Amino acid sequence: MRQAPPPPPVVPPPIPRSGPEIDATTVASLLAVLALLGGAYGASTKVLPKNTALKTRVLFIWHLFDALVHFVFEGSFLWNCFFVTYSLPTTFSAASRNPLPITLFTPPDVYWLGRKDLLYGANYGTGPFSRLWQEYAKADKRWGGTDLTVVALEVLTVFVAGPLACWICYLLTKGEKKDVLKKWFWMTVLATGEIYGGWMTFAPEWLTGSPNLDTSNWMYLSAWYRTRYMTVISYTPILHQTRLLPSSTSLSQQKLHVSHMRLTRVVVVRSWPEFGVLALHKLAGGWLYLAFFNGLWVVIPGWILYEAYAAMSSAISQAEMVDLVSYLKKDD
Fold first, then answer.
1. What is the count of structural domains for the chain?
2. What b-and-e string marks burial along 72-98, b requiring 16 or more CB atoms within 10 Å of the CB?
């Protein structure tokens, strides 16, 4: 009598992945960013002379890339916020929002665009740009819906910051010696706006315990730091300017510069260790994805402020020297 075959071995249940799944949406999003950056570089080779200084070329590439990102990506975010909808059941009310798997980003009894019967945002779309923001919303839930602060900031980003970045690109094509202060003025305005926008985007989260930020995934940190890098570099213009202290300034002005330098050094010395500890803590907590995509909009505007402060201070010092020479000649 033949024995029955042994039962198949028990297959253990699959272990859920703690890291992100790099799917087609993620790859397409990263390739799109690289395509915009490549397009900005290609445009710089066409509209700028070959002997253009490296700094000017970098500034042109950055501002064109910045404008393209604002128009394409953040413009698509606004499209989702205003035109991608989900119809609520007729029995839905603000009191019944908790049992439903729906996240509302407006206060109770406040409805986006005044529509009580519709939900807006990327979470309710199926197109490629909806999928893109659904992926981003894994790091910060607010980008999947219509958070009032985020949408208000993105409206300014798309319709003010984007065109302003294009205007700066135009100024950069007019020659390195022409309208120098005008260029740096508008670059300062834009860089300050980028840093302020980053702060207003994330400060409400920090002040409420970050209920919408996901710290459990190692890739999500890169998305968070896109705005953080810009803030860090914004402190460097002051340090750069202290090295350009003109000999023609008065004693009181020199004392003011020295005290400013000391204060800045204290701020930087105290801030950098704290920032390093915070960064290591966040990396260990798993925010890499959120940080990388936010960092550029902190670092680059900060560097621009660094250069703008130095350029405008140098121009002011030269103007003061011209006035002094003219005054001395008048006495002669």
1. 2
2. bbbbbbbbbbeebbeebeeeeeeeeee
